[in-house]
Amino acid sequence: MRERLLAAAPANAGAHEDPRLEVERVVAEEAGTLPAPLREALVHRLLVLAQGLGPLELLLADESIDEIMVNGYREIWVEREGRLERVASAFSSDRELRNLIERILAPLGRRVDEAHPICDARLADGSRVNVILPPLSVDGVCLTIRRFRPRRFTLAELAAKGALPAPLAEYLATATRSRRSLLVSGGTGSGKTTLLGALCAEIDASERLITIEDAAELRLERPHVVRLEARPPNLEGKGEVTIRQLVRNALRMRPDRIVVGEVRGGEALDMLQAMNTGHEGSLSTIHANSPQDALRRLETLALMADVDLPHGAIRAQVESALDLVVHMQRAVGGARVVAEVVELARDGQLGCRTLWRREGRALDGPDAAATASPGADWGSPSARVEGAA
Questions:
Q1: Scanning 20, 97, 173, 195, which has the fewest C-beta atoms within 10 Å of its C-beta?
Q2: Same domain, 171 and 94
Q3: In this structure, is residue 389 part of a structural domain?
Protein backbone atom coordinates (compact mmCIF):
# COMPACT_ATOMS: atom_id res chain seq x y z
CA MET A 1 0.00 0.00 0.00
CA ARG A 2 2.83 2.37 0.81
CA GLU A 3 4.36 1.72 -2.60
CA ARG A 4 1.04 2.52 -4.28
CA LEU A 5 0.81 5.80 -2.39
CA LEU A 6 4.34 6.76 -3.36
CA ALA A 7 3.65 5.89 -6.99
CA ALA A 8 0.44 7.93 -6.97
CA ALA A 9 2.02 10.97 -5.33
CA PRO A 10 3.51 12.51 -8.53
CA ALA A 11 0.22 12.16 -10.39
CA ASN A 12 -1.68 13.91 -7.62
CA ALA A 13 0.97 16.54 -6.88
CA GLY A 14 -0.95 19.31 -8.57
CA ALA A 15 -4.43 18.24 -7.58
CA HIS A 16 -4.25 19.66 -4.02
CA GLU A 17 -6.12 16.59 -2.79
CA ASP A 18 -6.24 15.84 0.89
CA PRO A 19 -3.63 13.09 1.42
CA ARG A 20 -5.92 11.39 3.89
CA LEU A 21 -8.55 10.86 1.19
CA GLU A 22 -6.01 9.14 -1.05
CA VAL A 23 -4.84 6.95 1.82
CA GLU A 24 -8.40 6.02 2.75
CA ARG A 25 -9.11 5.10 -0.87
CA VAL A 26 -6.09 2.82 -1.10
CA VAL A 27 -6.90 1.17 2.24
CA ALA A 28 -10.50 0.56 1.12
CA GLU A 29 -9.28 -1.12 -2.05
CA GLU A 30 -6.53 -3.21 -0.48
CA ALA A 31 -7.93 -3.95 2.99
CA GLY A 32 -11.66 -3.33 2.74
CA THR A 33 -12.48 -6.53 4.63
CA LEU A 34 -10.77 -5.37 7.81
CA PRO A 35 -12.91 -4.04 10.68
CA ALA A 36 -13.35 -0.25 10.73
CA PRO A 37 -11.07 0.31 13.78
CA LEU A 38 -8.24 -1.61 12.09
CA ARG A 39 -8.72 0.29 8.83
CA GLU A 40 -8.57 3.59 10.70
CA ALA A 41 -5.38 2.50 12.49
CA LEU A 42 -3.90 1.48 9.13
CA VAL A 43 -4.78 4.86 7.63
CA HIS A 44 -3.08 6.62 10.53
CA ARG A 45 0.00 4.40 10.19
CA LEU A 46 0.31 5.08 6.45
CA LEU A 47 -0.09 8.83 6.97
CA VAL A 48 2.68 8.78 9.55
CA LEU A 49 4.93 6.84 7.16
CA ALA A 50 4.12 9.12 4.25
CA GLN A 51 4.18 12.50 5.97
CA GLY A 52 5.44 12.13 9.52
CA LEU A 53 8.57 10.62 11.04
CA GLY A 54 7.53 6.98 10.88
CA PRO A 55 8.63 4.88 13.88
CA LEU A 56 10.17 7.99 15.44
CA GLU A 57 6.86 9.86 15.67
CA LEU A 58 5.82 8.39 19.01
CA LEU A 59 9.37 8.58 20.39
CA LEU A 60 9.57 12.30 19.63
CA ALA A 61 6.21 12.78 21.35
CA ASP A 62 7.57 11.14 24.53
CA GLU A 63 8.88 14.00 26.69
CA SER A 64 10.91 11.63 28.85
CA ILE A 65 13.25 10.83 25.92
CA ASP A 66 16.32 13.04 25.55
CA GLU A 67 17.99 11.44 22.55
CA ILE A 68 17.06 9.04 19.75
CA MET A 69 19.72 6.93 18.04
CA VAL A 70 19.00 4.92 14.88
CA ASN A 71 21.79 2.41 14.15
CA GLY A 72 20.66 1.10 10.79
CA TYR A 73 17.01 0.57 9.96
CA ARG A 74 16.60 -2.44 12.27
CA GLU A 75 17.81 -0.86 15.49
CA ILE A 76 16.56 2.16 17.46
CA TRP A 77 17.88 3.24 20.86
CA VAL A 78 16.78 6.07 23.13
CA GLU A 79 18.23 7.85 26.13
CA ARG A 80 15.79 8.29 28.97
CA GLU A 81 16.90 9.88 32.27
CA GLY A 82 20.54 9.35 31.35
CA ARG A 83 20.17 5.64 30.54
CA LEU A 84 20.22 3.96 27.13
CA GLU A 85 17.54 1.47 26.18
CA ARG A 86 16.58 -0.25 22.94
CA VAL A 87 13.00 0.15 21.75
CA ALA A 88 10.91 -2.46 19.99
CA SER A 89 10.00 -0.31 16.98
CA ALA A 90 12.17 -0.20 13.88
CA PHE A 91 12.05 0.77 10.22
CA SER A 92 10.83 -1.78 7.70
CA SER A 93 13.73 -1.17 5.32
CA ASP A 94 16.78 0.93 4.64
CA ARG A 95 14.76 2.78 2.00
CA GLU A 96 12.13 3.82 4.55
CA LEU A 97 14.86 5.25 6.81
CA ARG A 98 16.44 7.14 3.90
CA ASN A 99 13.03 8.51 2.86
CA LEU A 100 12.52 9.81 6.39
CA ILE A 101 15.91 11.53 6.32
CA GLU A 102 15.03 13.18 3.00
CA ARG A 103 11.77 14.49 4.48
CA ILE A 104 13.73 16.01 7.39
CA LEU A 105 16.43 17.61 5.25
CA ALA A 106 14.51 18.74 2.16
CA PRO A 107 12.62 21.67 3.80
CA LEU A 108 15.93 22.93 5.21
CA GLY A 109 17.68 22.94 1.84
CA ARG A 110 20.08 20.26 3.10
CA ARG A 111 21.05 17.05 1.39
CA VAL A 112 22.95 13.90 2.25
CA ASP A 113 24.26 11.41 -0.32
CA GLU A 114 27.37 9.44 -1.24
CA ALA A 115 29.16 12.66 -2.23
CA HIS A 116 28.21 14.36 1.06
CA PRO A 117 27.65 11.48 3.53
CA ILE A 118 27.53 13.60 6.71
CA CYS A 119 24.91 16.22 7.50
CA ASP A 120 23.77 18.25 10.50
CA ALA A 121 20.30 19.80 10.67
CA ARG A 122 17.50 20.49 13.10
CA LEU A 123 13.79 19.78 13.28
CA ALA A 124 11.13 22.48 13.40
CA ASP A 125 11.04 22.24 17.21
CA GLY A 126 14.78 22.85 17.45
CA SER A 127 15.86 19.24 17.99
CA ARG A 128 19.33 18.63 16.58
CA VAL A 129 19.78 16.00 13.84
CA ASN A 130 22.92 14.25 12.64
CA VAL A 131 23.05 11.85 9.69
CA ILE A 132 25.94 9.71 8.50
CA LEU A 133 25.72 7.28 5.58
CA PRO A 134 27.64 4.18 4.51
CA PRO A 135 30.43 3.49 3.80
CA LEU A 136 31.45 5.88 6.61
CA SER A 137 28.82 4.23 8.80
CA VAL A 138 29.78 0.61 8.30
CA ASP A 139 26.60 -1.08 9.55
CA GLY A 140 24.06 1.13 7.80
CA VAL A 141 22.57 4.61 7.93
CA CYS A 142 22.89 6.26 11.34
CA LEU A 143 20.50 8.98 12.47
CA THR A 144 20.84 10.76 15.81
CA ILE A 145 18.29 13.22 17.16
CA ARG A 146 18.98 15.22 20.29
CA ARG A 147 15.66 16.38 21.63
CA PHE A 148 14.93 20.03 22.23
CA ARG A 149 13.08 20.86 25.41
CA PRO A 150 10.90 23.93 24.86
CA ARG A 151 11.11 24.85 28.53
CA ARG A 152 14.52 25.45 30.06
CA PHE A 153 15.49 24.75 33.65
CA THR A 154 16.38 27.51 36.08
CA LEU A 155 19.32 27.21 38.46
CA ALA A 156 16.88 26.67 41.33
CA GLU A 157 15.23 23.79 39.46
CA LEU A 158 18.59 22.22 38.66
CA ALA A 159 19.48 22.45 42.34
CA ALA A 160 16.17 20.79 43.26
CA LYS A 161 17.02 17.95 40.87
CA GLY A 162 20.40 17.45 42.53
CA ALA A 163 22.55 18.78 39.69
CA LEU A 164 24.26 21.16 42.11
CA PRO A 165 23.76 22.26 45.74
CA ALA A 166 21.49 25.25 46.33
CA PRO A 167 24.26 27.46 47.80
CA LEU A 168 26.40 26.86 44.71
CA ALA A 169 23.44 27.69 42.48
CA GLU A 170 23.02 30.99 44.30
CA TYR A 171 26.75 31.67 44.02
CA LEU A 172 26.68 31.11 40.24
CA ALA A 173 23.56 33.26 39.91
CA THR A 174 25.28 36.08 41.78
CA ALA A 175 28.42 35.67 39.68
CA THR A 176 26.39 35.88 36.46
CA ARG A 177 24.44 38.92 37.58
CA SER A 178 27.73 40.56 38.63
CA ARG A 179 29.06 40.19 35.07
CA ARG A 180 31.70 37.60 35.78
CA SER A 181 32.67 35.70 32.60
CA LEU A 182 31.98 31.97 32.84
CA LEU A 183 33.02 28.98 30.76
CA VAL A 184 30.99 25.76 31.08
CA SER A 185 33.00 22.63 30.27
CA GLY A 186 32.14 18.96 30.01
CA GLY A 187 31.74 16.00 27.70
CA THR A 188 29.08 15.38 25.09
CA GLY A 189 25.61 15.21 26.64
CA SER A 190 26.83 16.25 30.08
CA GLY A 191 24.33 19.13 30.39
CA LYS A 192 26.50 22.07 29.29
CA THR A 193 23.79 23.75 27.22
CA THR A 194 21.18 23.19 29.94
CA LEU A 195 23.38 24.93 32.52
CA LEU A 196 24.25 27.68 30.03
CA GLY A 197 20.55 28.41 29.53
CA ALA A 198 19.99 28.49 33.29
CA LEU A 199 22.86 30.94 33.75
CA CYS A 200 21.52 33.18 30.98
CA ALA A 201 18.19 33.32 32.79
CA GLU A 202 19.97 35.16 35.62
CA ILE A 203 21.08 38.04 33.36
CA ASP A 204 19.19 41.29 33.94
CA ALA A 205 16.27 41.70 31.55
CA SER A 206 17.44 45.19 30.56
CA GLU A 207 20.60 43.85 28.91
CA ARG A 208 20.88 43.14 25.18
CA LEU A 209 22.00 39.55 24.73
CA ILE A 210 23.34 38.04 21.49
CA THR A 211 23.58 34.26 21.24
CA ILE A 212 25.75 32.58 18.61
CA GLU A 213 25.40 28.87 17.93
CA ASP A 214 26.30 26.27 15.36
CA ALA A 215 22.74 24.94 15.62
CA ALA A 216 20.30 27.14 17.52
CA GLU A 217 19.41 25.34 20.75
CA LEU A 218 19.15 28.08 23.34
CA ARG A 219 15.63 29.38 23.92
CA LEU A 220 15.88 32.30 26.31
CA GLU A 221 12.69 33.76 27.74
CA ARG A 222 13.81 37.38 27.91
CA PRO A 223 12.65 40.59 26.20
CA HIS A 224 15.86 41.50 24.36
CA VAL A 225 17.79 38.66 22.76
CA VAL A 226 19.19 38.28 19.24
CA ARG A 227 19.83 34.72 18.06
CA LEU A 228 22.49 34.06 15.40
CA GLU A 229 23.13 30.68 13.79
CA ALA A 230 26.05 29.54 11.66
CA ARG A 231 25.40 28.27 8.15
CA PRO A 232 27.20 25.38 6.43
CA PRO A 233 28.27 25.63 2.78
CA ASN A 234 25.73 24.69 0.11
CA LEU A 235 26.13 21.84 -2.38
CA GLU A 236 28.53 23.97 -4.43
CA GLY A 237 30.66 24.61 -1.35
CA LYS A 238 29.63 28.27 -1.11
CA GLY A 239 27.70 30.44 1.32
CA GLU A 240 29.27 29.22 4.55
CA VAL A 241 28.99 31.54 7.55
CA THR A 242 31.15 30.45 10.47
CA ILE A 243 30.84 30.98 14.21
CA ARG A 244 33.91 33.18 14.03
CA GLN A 245 32.30 35.48 11.46
CA LEU A 246 29.19 35.76 13.62
CA VAL A 247 31.23 36.61 16.73
CA ARG A 248 32.97 39.39 14.83
CA ASN A 249 29.66 40.69 13.50
CA ALA A 250 28.05 40.54 16.95
CA LEU A 251 30.57 43.11 18.17
CA ARG A 252 28.96 45.60 15.76
CA MET A 253 25.47 44.91 17.08
CA ARG A 254 25.81 46.73 20.41
CA PRO A 255 25.71 43.65 22.65
CA ASP A 256 25.79 43.92 26.42
CA ARG A 257 26.80 40.27 26.55
CA ILE A 258 27.69 37.62 23.99
CA VAL A 259 26.84 33.97 24.51
CA VAL A 260 28.66 31.48 22.26
CA GLY A 261 26.95 28.10 22.34
CA GLU A 262 30.24 26.26 21.97
CA VAL A 263 33.77 27.27 21.05
CA ARG A 264 35.49 24.73 18.85
CA GLY A 265 37.79 26.75 16.58
CA GLY A 266 39.43 30.09 15.90
CA GLU A 267 36.39 31.96 17.21
CA ALA A 268 37.87 31.34 20.67
CA LEU A 269 40.25 34.26 20.15
CA ASP A 270 37.48 36.61 19.02
CA MET A 271 35.38 35.63 22.03
CA LEU A 272 38.30 36.27 24.40
CA GLN A 273 38.92 39.66 22.84
CA ALA A 274 35.23 40.53 23.20
CA MET A 275 35.35 39.64 26.90
CA ASN A 276 38.42 41.83 27.28
CA THR A 277 36.95 44.85 25.49
CA GLY A 278 33.82 45.77 27.41
CA HIS A 279 31.70 42.63 27.16
CA GLU A 280 32.34 41.19 30.60
CA GLY A 281 29.86 38.63 31.78
CA SER A 282 29.80 36.76 28.47
CA LEU A 283 29.39 32.98 28.57
CA SER A 284 30.27 29.95 26.49
CA THR A 285 30.76 26.17 26.60
CA ILE A 286 33.61 23.91 25.56
CA HIS A 287 34.21 20.18 25.35
CA ALA A 288 36.79 19.09 27.92
CA ASN A 289 37.41 16.45 30.58
CA SER A 290 38.18 18.88 33.41
CA PRO A 291 38.33 22.63 34.09
CA GLN A 292 42.09 22.58 33.63
CA ASP A 293 41.75 20.78 30.30
CA ALA A 294 39.10 23.32 29.29
CA LEU A 295 41.51 26.21 29.81
CA ARG A 296 44.30 24.47 27.92
CA ARG A 297 41.94 23.58 25.06
CA LEU A 298 40.63 27.14 24.89
CA GLU A 299 44.21 28.34 24.66
CA THR A 300 44.89 25.88 21.83
CA LEU A 301 41.76 26.91 19.93
CA ALA A 302 42.73 30.57 20.19
CA LEU A 303 46.11 29.70 18.67
CA MET A 304 44.21 28.20 15.70
CA ALA A 305 42.86 31.63 14.75
CA ASP A 306 45.64 32.24 12.19
CA VAL A 307 46.72 35.37 14.03
CA ASP A 308 50.43 35.68 14.62
CA LEU A 309 50.29 36.18 18.37
CA PRO A 310 52.84 34.67 20.74
CA HIS A 311 51.74 31.91 23.09
CA GLY A 312 52.21 34.13 26.11
CA ALA A 313 49.87 36.79 24.70
CA ILE A 314 47.13 34.20 24.12
CA ARG A 315 47.52 32.87 27.66
CA ALA A 316 47.25 36.40 29.02
CA GLN A 317 44.05 36.88 27.03
CA VAL A 318 42.54 33.70 28.54
CA GLU A 319 43.46 34.66 32.10
CA SER A 320 42.18 38.21 31.72
CA ALA A 321 38.91 37.26 30.00
CA LEU A 322 37.61 34.42 32.18
CA ASP A 323 36.71 34.36 35.85
CA LEU A 324 35.14 30.96 36.49
CA VAL A 325 35.00 27.52 34.87
CA VAL A 326 32.06 25.27 35.75
CA HIS A 327 32.60 21.62 34.83
CA MET A 328 29.69 19.28 34.07
CA GLN A 329 29.72 15.50 33.97
CA ARG A 330 27.44 12.49 34.01
CA ALA A 331 27.13 10.68 37.30
CA VAL A 332 27.24 6.88 37.47
CA GLY A 333 23.45 6.62 37.16
CA GLY A 334 23.37 8.92 34.12
CA ALA A 335 22.36 12.14 35.90
CA ARG A 336 23.99 15.34 34.66
CA VAL A 337 25.66 17.17 37.52
CA VAL A 338 28.08 19.98 38.26
CA ALA A 339 31.35 18.26 39.14
CA GLU A 340 33.65 21.18 39.89
CA VAL A 341 33.84 24.97 39.94
CA VAL A 342 37.20 26.72 39.68
CA GLU A 343 38.36 30.32 39.68
CA LEU A 344 41.30 31.44 37.57
CA ALA A 345 44.36 32.29 39.66
CA ARG A 346 45.85 34.60 36.99
CA ASP A 347 49.36 33.40 37.76
CA GLY A 348 50.57 33.32 34.16
CA GLN A 349 50.36 29.50 34.08
CA LEU A 350 46.59 29.02 33.65
CA GLY A 351 46.44 28.02 37.28
CA CYS A 352 43.11 27.89 39.07
CA ARG A 353 41.70 27.51 42.56
CA THR A 354 39.01 24.92 43.20
CA LEU A 355 35.99 26.56 44.78
CA TRP A 356 33.84 23.43 44.95
CA ARG A 357 34.23 19.79 43.96
CA ARG A 358 31.49 17.19 44.06
CA GLU A 359 33.47 14.22 45.32
CA GLY A 360 35.04 16.23 48.12
CA ARG A 361 33.43 18.91 50.21
CA ALA A 362 32.59 22.56 49.83
CA LEU A 363 35.38 24.91 50.82
CA ASP A 364 32.66 27.23 52.08
CA GLY A 365 29.60 26.27 54.08
CA PRO A 366 26.00 26.53 52.86
CA ASP A 367 25.33 29.87 54.51
CA ALA A 368 28.58 31.47 53.40
CA ALA A 369 28.17 30.15 49.85
CA ALA A 370 24.73 31.62 49.59
CA THR A 371 25.92 35.07 50.57
CA ALA A 372 29.52 35.17 49.31
CA SER A 373 30.30 37.78 46.70
CA PRO A 374 31.50 36.37 43.34
CA GLY A 375 34.94 37.79 44.05
CA ALA A 376 35.29 36.04 47.41
CA ASP A 377 38.11 33.55 47.85
CA TRP A 378 36.25 30.37 48.68
CA GLY A 379 39.52 28.63 49.39
CA SER A 380 40.56 30.84 52.26
CA PRO A 381 41.28 28.73 55.35
CA SER A 382 39.26 31.05 57.57
CA ALA A 383 36.11 30.23 55.62
CA ARG A 384 36.52 26.46 55.59
CA VAL A 385 33.20 24.95 56.71
CA GLU A 386 31.81 21.59 55.72
CA GLY A 387 28.47 21.30 53.94
CA ALA A 388 26.93 21.76 50.49
CA ALA A 389 28.74 18.67 49.25
A1: 20
A2: no
A3: no
CA distances from 194 to 132, 163, 168, 217 (A): 26, 11, 16, 10
Q: Is residue 381 part of a domain?
A: no
Residue 387 lies in a domain: no
Amino acid at residue number 366: P
Mean pLDDT lowest among 41-55, 78-92, 138-152, 303-317: 41-55
CB distance 374 to 355 below 8 Å: no
Q: Phi, psi at residue 310, to the nearest 5°?
A: -70, 155
Helix, strand, or coil (residue 146):
strand
Query: Structurally, how many domains does the chain consist of?
Result: 3
Same domain, 74 and 171: no
Strands 118-122, 128-132: pairing kind: antiparallel
Q: How far is CA 75 from CA 99, 134, 295, in A?
A: 16, 16, 39
CA atoms within 13 A on the CB side of 386: 2
Shared domain check, 258 and 143 = no
Structural contact between residues 130 and 143, judged by C-beta atoms closer than 8 angstroms: yes
With H, G, I as helix, E, B as strand and everything else as coil, classify residue 127.
Answer: coil
Residues 184, 329, single domain; the answer is yes
d(CA 326, CA 288): 11
SS3 label, residue 132: strand
Instruction: For 4-69, give the DSSP string.
Output: HHHHHTTTTTTTT--HHHHHHHHHHHHHTTS-HHHHHHHHHHHHHHHHS-TTHHHHHH-TTEEEEE
Partners of 231 in beta bridges: 241
Whether 60 and 205 map to the same domain: the answer is: no
* Boundaries of domain holding 226: 155-357
For 303-351, the pLDDT digits (tens) are: 998 888 898 999 999 999 999 999 999 887 788 999 999 999 999 999 9
Query: Is 285 within 8 Å of 185 (Cβ atoms)?
Result: yes
pTM for the whole structure: 0.77
Please return the burial class of 94, using the count of CB atoms within 10 Å of its CB with bins 0-12, 13-18 and 19+.
Answer: middle
Radius of gyration of the chain (CA): 25
Residue 384 lies in a domain: no
Q: Helix or strand or coil: residue 185?
A: strand
pLDDT at position 18 is 67
